[in-house]
Amino acid sequence: MSEPAPKRPVEDAPEPSGATPVVAPVARSRATLLKRLADVVCLPGSRVNAFERAMTSDLLIEMLREAAPEERAKVARRLANIADVPPSLARMLLRDTIQIAANLLEHSQHLGDADLIDCALHAEPEHRRLIALRRGVGEAVGDALVRRCEQPVLEALLRNDMARLSHGALETIVACTRDNPRLIALLLRRPELRPSHAYIMFWWADADCRRLILQRFAVSREVLQDAVGDLFSLAAEEGWQDPLTRKALQFIERRQRNRAAIEKSPFGSLDEAIAAAQSGMTRELAEEISYLSGLKPMTGAKIMTDPGGEPIAILCKATGLPKGAVKALWRGLRRPETDGAGNITPALERVLTCFDSLAVDRAQTVLRYWNWALSSALTPSLMKAIRDGDDDAVDEFSAPQRAAMLALGRDFAR
Predict the structure, then answer these.
(1) Full-model pTM
(2) How far apart are CA 286 and CA 282, in angstroms?
(3) Nearest in space to 177 (alpha carbons), one of 152, 215, 157, 149
(4) Which of 1, 26, 60, 386 is paired with 54 by a 20 to 30 Å CA distance?
(5) Strand pairing partners for 344?
């Protein structure tokens, strides 16, 4: 007796002319097979060993490559409930469209940092935003999320109180705030933020954020002054020969004005130079005021040209000048003092309020950090990196030097 001819698979069977293709059995079998494979992957370790799970995962991946989006979504929803999703399967689904990846990103509590970093580096902005919303985002994942400076991603990350940000991520976000100023208020809430970051963001922050920076980060140096008070006389006995000691003690000391500059100046005091400036500020006069104030000319120029004007108040308070000096500099810089009705302009009123609210020692802290970061840190190699926009070399520089790159990069590019 001859054997019956083997039956062909349903999808290969000829279709009657004009009939609807028979696809339902195929769809049901595929859906059932995908579900069974996902079930095996989800079995506990007591039911399936690592090799069996890996083999099943490999087969599932091969099927999912050609599966319909809704089928991949079903598998992603199933895997979101297990603690150890095979890495290769997790990465495939996390790189999928957001409709599929969201099932894992929003509901799986067990994705590893390596899988999340891979997704952050290779998927789309919405994937990164969902990662930023997850509980317990670690520093390594945060580093991957901030690379592209995507505002929605950074906003989600900064609002996530359970996320941890590394120092490098903070510096990246600080740099991003220059083109995304809405991030500044969120960044100022973060406990990881250091005074060095806040002082440099001050230059492009709005009035409200500037006020918050001064309230929170303009710290006193009293503890440092008490700790090293006896070293000033020791350094003087040595003739201030050690440059590192001299630089650090200059930052800590109470006196702001430069006595040596006053002895060489054509003006008898800083007050006289300010009085002369109110008739009209010149470049030479601005440099003289900078020297008399214990500042480098570059720092002084940054202060005088700041659109908001608060740095002028900080300069005057730090150097012990009276409130009238703020108005004198304002007038010398040709800034409007009153409006058409004769009332003080809101900008000048805001700057005068800044002067009144800031203590001398705290104003000196801000001013000296600016001077340190914006001028003393400028080495030839740093100036070249600023001009070239060499972000890859940023790790080679100190914190003040990196601050200078942020604050002065566009000034050198002009």
Answers:
(1) 0.77
(2) 6
(3) 149
(4) 26
(5) 338
- Asked whether 328 and 274 are in contact (CB, 8 A), the reply is yes
What distance in Å separates the CA atoms of residue 233 and residue 188, rounded to the nearest whole number?
A: 39
Could you give the CA distance from residue 256 to residue 363 in angstroms, rounded to a whole number?
10
Of the two residues 257 and 354, the one the predictor is more confident about is: 354
Query: What H or E segment, with its residue span, contains residue 388?
Result: helix 380-388
As given in the structure block, the two tokens for residue 61 are: 């991946």
pLDDT in tens, 300-312: 988 999 999 999 9
SS3 for 238?
coil
Q: What is the C-alpha separation between 134 and 129, in angstroms, rounded? A: 9
Q: Is the pLDDT of residue 51 over 60?
A: yes
Q: Is the dihedral of CA 56, 62, 65, 68 positive or negative?
A: negative
**Residue 394 has what pLDDT?**
45
- Residue that has been written with the tokens 């087969």 in this structure: 59
For 332, residues 6+ apart whose C-beta sits below 8 A from its C-beta are 277, 278, 279, 280, 281, 285
Residue 8 φ/ψ region, left for φ over 0, alpha for ψ in the -120 to 50 degree band, beta for the rest = beta
Q: Which two tokens stand for residue 129?
A: 């935003």
Provide the phi-psi class of 101: left if phi over 0, else alpha when psi is between -120 and 50, else beta.
alpha
3-state secondary structure at position 72: helix
State mean pLDDT over 375-400: 46
What is the signed CA dihedral for 227, 229, 232, 235, rounded to 10 degrees? -40
d(CA 142, CA 144): 5
Q: How far is CA 310 from CA 45, 182, 325, in A?
A: 64, 20, 13
Rg (CA), the chain: 32
Matching residue, tokens 């580096």: 121
Residue 246: Cβ within 10 Å count: 13
Q: Exposure pattern of 204-237 as b/e (b: 16+ CB <10 Å)?
A: bbeeebbbbbbeebbeebeebeeebeeebeebee
**CA-to-CA separations, 299 to 96, 226, 257, 408, in angstroms, rounded:** 50, 28, 14, 10
- Looking up tokens 């969120």 gives 186
Q: What's the mean pLDDT in 266-295?
A: 93
Structure tokens at 152: 């929605």
